[in-house]
Design goal:
The protein has a domain of 65 residues. It is 72% helix and 0% strand. It contains 13 helices and no strands. Helix 8 runs antiparallel to helix 9 and helix 12 packs antiparallel against helix 13. The longest helix is centred in the first third of the chain and has 33 residues.
């Protein structure tokens, strides 16, 4: 009887030991996963940023929404390798997440890994063939690679699904302009927004391509249609174009180099 009692006591101690070890390992894994131990930064991100983000999400390991939002956070601070890691976890938790593949394509584009970006976008479209933003982003990827015809095809697919989306129209206009078809570019700008804005947009493209007389013509049109609209920008750009035409840069105090237009290709 005494031997049996001793055996029960030893078994109880052993089980308690196992529970303690398991709990300890789980805690360490959670901390390592989030990089919350110690004071050092993790992958160049301050520890406090990890803490704040983890707390705000109430992160759950297998929750695809939390994983996806974690990835978007990393994208917002330009940490695309970390974003890709989180997106891989998102897809493991939800293999049919088209938006996770779309976001993965965005990060690959930002890392200039265009082959993987295109594959990610095509996987997203296989899961959701009507996901208009994916076509837009695929077009963006092709645009960056100099594949303008492919970019235009993708932008047009986005427009078929959302005909009034100004972002897609502006992007298609940029592709037309890249091919030198300024009339079609202006046509897309005109559909995308107000007429004065369309003149202003095409003027900037003309200016950036060294076609200063064309730029000044469209700036005059923009000013005539909407005298108070973007008056400062229009005036500065007109002065710059005039300075280029006359070769009188130094005597033109309003001269500023051309700025990138506000309608550059966007990504979601």
């Amino acid at each position: 009887m005494s031997a049996k009692k001793d055996l029960i006591i030893h078994l109880a101690i052993f089980i308690f030991f196992l529970i303690s070890v398991f709990t300890s390992c789980s805690t360490v894994f959670h901390q390592r996963n989030w990089g919350l131990t110690g004071e050092a930064d993790v992958d160049g991100i301050p520890q406090k940023d990890y803490m704040q983000f983890a707390t705000s999400l109430r992160f759950r390991t297998q929750d695809p929404e939390s994983l996806y939002q974690q990835a978007r956070h990393f994208q917002s601070i330009n940490k695309h390798q970390l974003a890709l890691s989180a997106l891989e976890d998102t897809i493991l938790a939800d293999p049919k997440s088209a938006r996770a593949y779309n976001a993965m394509g965005v990060s690959y584009d930002c890392l200039q890994d265009f082959a993987r970006a295109v594959l990610a976008y095509k996987r997203a479209l296989a899961l959701d063939p009507d996901f208009a933003d994916v076509y837009n982003n695929l077009g963006y990827s092709y645009f960056l690679q100099g594949k303008i015809d492919a970019a235009m095809d993708a932008f047009n697919e986005a427009i078929v699904r959302q005909p009034r989306n100004s972002k897609y129209r502006n992007n298609l206009a940029l592709a037309y302009a890249k091919k030198g078809d300024y009339d079609k570019a202006f046509g897309e700008f005109s559909v995308a927004g107000p007429e004065a804005q369309a003149h202003y947009n095409i003027a900037q493209i003309y200016y950036q391509n060294g076609k200063f007389e064309n730029a000044r013509h469209h700036l005059d049109q923009a000013t005539t249609i909407a005298p108070d609209r973007q008056l400062t920008k229009t005036g500065l750009l007109a002065a710059a174009a005039l300075a280029e035409i006359t070769g009188d840069r130094e005597d033109s105090p309003s001269y500023l180099p051309a700025h990138q237009p506000p309608f550059l290709i966007e990504k979601d």
